[in-house]
Amino acid sequence: MAGFSKFASALGAIFLARLGSAGYVLKEDFLSNPSSSFDGFNFFNQEDPTAGTVEYVSEPVAALASLIGYNHDSFMVAVDAKTELGDSATAGRQSVRLEGKTNYNHGLLVADVTHMPAGCGTWPAFWLLGAGDSWPSTGEIDIIEGVNNQAGDQVTLHTTSGCAIQNQTGQNVYTGRVLTSDCDVNAPNQDQNAGCGIQAPTNPVGNASFGTNFNTQQGGVFATEWTSNGITVWFFPRSAIPQDLASNSTAPNPQGWKQAPLAQFSGSNCTWDAHFQNMRPIINIDLCGAWAGDASVWESSGCQAQTQVDTCEDYVRTYPGNFTEAYWIFKGMRMYESD
User: Rounded CA gap, 164 and 57, in Å?
Assistant: First the structure.
C-alpha cells in the first residue's frame, strides 16, 4: 500500500483527542503469514442465530468446497455458488463464519478490505462481539454491515439497557447520519434489536463504503477504536489511506488522521466499559435471515423486482450462480492495543 496519499480534510483529530485516543502497538496480525491466516480464527458451525438460509461449515468442509483461500497477501471467504438446493433440503447454502480466538478490551482494529459480498440475498458483516452466552450483555459492534443492494455501510452498536448516544451529526464530528440513538436492543420506540446505528453516505465509486461500488474501487480500510469514552469507526477509500495505516505500520496514530470518522458513538449516557467487554472480531456471510430476508426489506431493496422471485429464501436456494460475488477478500487485518 506504499504511495497512498493523505486525505486533506481538517476534521477529526480534535474529536479523537476528546475520546482519549492513545498510542498503539501491534498485538495481533492476522495476515503476518497468509498461509496460516485462518489459524487465528475458530470456524463457527452451529445454526445461524439470525435465521439465515445458510449452513456455516467447519474449516475442512470450507477448504474442500473452496469457500476459503489465500494468496501471498490476502485471504478469501465465500459462500457456495454452485449447488442448487431443492425444496427438501434441510440446510441452507454453505457459508463461513470466522470468530477470532482472542478477546480484547479497548484497542484499535484495522481491516483492509478489497472485496465484500454484494447483491440480492446477501448479508455480510465484519463485527466485534463480546464473550458470553447472554447477548448482548457484553456488547456488539457492527463495523461493516448491510443487506441486498445497500450502497452505504451501516455501523451499529447493540447493548442491554442504559446505553445511548448523543446525536452530533450537525457538528460535523462524523460523516454518517444517526438512524437510532438508543443502543439497547429492547429500547422503546425503536425496532426490536435495532440498537444505535449510524448510516454512511451513499457515495459513488471512489469513495463508496459498501456494495458493488466499493468492490469496483477495490475497497478501502476500516479502522475501529474503542476506549472508556466511546467507539469510533473510520472508513478510508483506497486513495485516501493514512500513511501510518500502510501494511508495514506497527504504531498507527488516530490523532494524526485528518479525515472525519464515518461514525462516532460517545457521551455520558453510556458506561462504555460496562457495556463492551471481551470483544472478538467476526467475519461472516449470511444469506436472507432476519434482515435481508424480511419480506418488506426484500421488496423495498428492489430485489423482488430485480430477481422476479417472491422471497429471498427461494432465490438463495434456486440460483447458486448469482452468488459468485458473495465473497470477502481481506488484504490486511490487525489488532492494536494502547502502549
Answer: 36
Q: Is 99 designated active site?
A: no
The kind and range of the H/E element at 336 are: strand 327-338
- Averaged over successive runs of 10 residues, the pLDDT of the chain (339 residues) comes to 32 41 86 92 97 98 98 96 89 97 97 98 98 96 98 98 80 87 97 97 96 98 97 96 83 93 96 98 98 98 98 97 98 94
pLDDT in tens, 217-228: 999 999 999 999
Q: What is the pTM of this model?
A: 0.92
Reported in sequence order, the residue ranges of 71-153 that DSSP labels E, i.e. its strands, are: 75-78, 93-95, 97-100, 107-115, 122-130, 140-145
Q: In this structure, how many other beta carbons lie within 10 angstroms of the beta carbon of residue 2?
A: 7
- Of the residues 55, 145, 225, 313, only one is catalytic, namely 145
Task: Please name which of 179, 337, 166 lies closest in space to residue 267, comparing C-alpha atoms.
Answer: 166
CA distance 56 to 52: 10
Q: Angle CA(186)–CA(130)–CA(133) in degrees, nearest 5?
A: 70
Give yes or no for a contact between 9 and 175, defined as CB atoms under 8 angstroms apart: no
Given the residues 28, 47, 99, 140, the one annotated as active site? 140
Which of the 8 DSSP states describes residue 181? Answer: -
What's the CA gap between 237 and 207, in Å, rounded?
5
Is position 59 annotated as part of the catalytic site? no
Contact (Cβ atoms closer than 8 angstroms) between residue 100 and residue 41: yes
